[in-house]
Amino acid sequence: MNKNKKLTKLKKIFSILVLVPALLIPSIASATVTAPIVTEIKAESIKSEENQNTLNKKIKEAHEIKSKKDSLSETKSPIFSPWATKDLNEAQFMGLYPAKGFFNERDFTKPATLEDANTCYKLSKKKIEERGIETAGNFTFKKLTREEILNSISKLLKDEKFEIKNLKKAKIFLGSEDEGYLNSKISLEEMISLYSRAVNKVLQDNDKVSRGFFYEVNNKENKIYMLGSIHLGNTSLYPIDKNILNALKSSDKIFMEIDLSKKDEAKKMREKIYYNDGKTLRDDLGAELYLRVLNLFKSFGMEEADIKTLKPWAVYNTLSIDPSGETARASFGIESYFMSLSLLNKIEIGELESMEYQSNILANFDNTSYIKMIEALTSEIEKNGYKNINLGLDNLLDAWQSGDKSKMKSILSAESDEESKKFNEALLSERDKGMAKKIDAMLKKDGKNTYFILVGSAHLVPENSVTGILKDMGYNVIEK
Predict the structure, then answer these.
(1) Is the distance from CB of 316 to CB of 218 less than 8 angstroms?
(2) What is the arithmetic mean of pLDDT over 190-202?
(3) Do the beta carbons of residue 103 and residue 174 sit within 8 Å?
(4) What is the residue-averaged pLDDT of the chain?
(5) What is the pTM of this model?
(6) Span of the secretion signal (predicted)?
(7) Do residues 464 and 425 lie in contact, with contact meaning Cβ atoms separated by under 8 Å?
């Protein structure tokens, strides 16, 4: 099957990835926690081997993983200085330091180790070279002083001559040039911050950044920026074009589909994923399909007790995403990143919809259609694992990173079966109208206001989406 046919076959799965907030997707068993430190949205994953021969082997391995689950609940936040928060956050999203290092009370104010320095340099070098930019090669660390780290960064940037003044001019190094200060041991947080600033600068300067799907619309003295997101992501999406980030920083308020910081409300909404009337998943799926689905969930490290009262819509949403998180995960999605930036920059957060509204859309969709989609999805996973699903996700991430609207439109407009068409219609049509109406009201407000809108890409990229509705209202929607 060629790539285009695979994309068509998996159209129903893409709708989940670009339309449904990952917050509403049930959590599954996990072995490692690798979430960005500011948002505290914890990604959960299990490690699996490729080319496993039998489902029983997968189930056995998953149960071994599950035995580690209790220890995760004891994971504690790291220790770092307030000044380093933004740089550490950027470093984690860019993948410049192992995500697991941000947990278990790691003290980032302590001196960096040789392993820390080698790891940070290697990951920073890889990040730059993957974007087609040459570095000056490897670096040998000996003293782990500020000056040595700055020297390594100069080599990373392929400077002809190491001069601290150049790094200060580039706003990579902000400290003193005093000899004693430069020759003292560097802390882990300062070292990571220096690499974070350096990598960000070189990629921004060389236009090797993610573009996303970015728009602007104005009326009177009001300005609205709109960015289409993908609810799952990985480190390849970062850094994001500084023009988008500057637009956020200039905004009075950011509006997301839902406010991800309302954790108590999120907990309440998740209760809707379970039957509460004595009914079970087996009753809806039937004995044969239920057993197949159960075996898949067991391979994720779950017991029957964990899923027997899940509703079909929760099952479908969960199965749609590779539990290993190797391709992408919610904690590295665009919402998670912009949530962290908004919190760090003290930008007010609002929502265009609500968790209850979105969960009701998912829960109220035709149950018969869900069951048909679950059967098709189960067959795909049984036959190919998440290989084809992740291939589709890679295509989405590539389209977002390059800002390729044509590619995204092609993915979203691929032919699909009747159930998928109804599902996409339920997720899009009325919601687009509601979002456009609220944006129209913002544009008509008195005074001078600047807002930043962050919604799923499928709400902005297609011609008949929010952007199209705003155009029909008479607005000039500028593609950035």
Answers:
(1) no
(2) 98
(3) no
(4) 84
(5) 0.85
(6) 1-31
(7) no
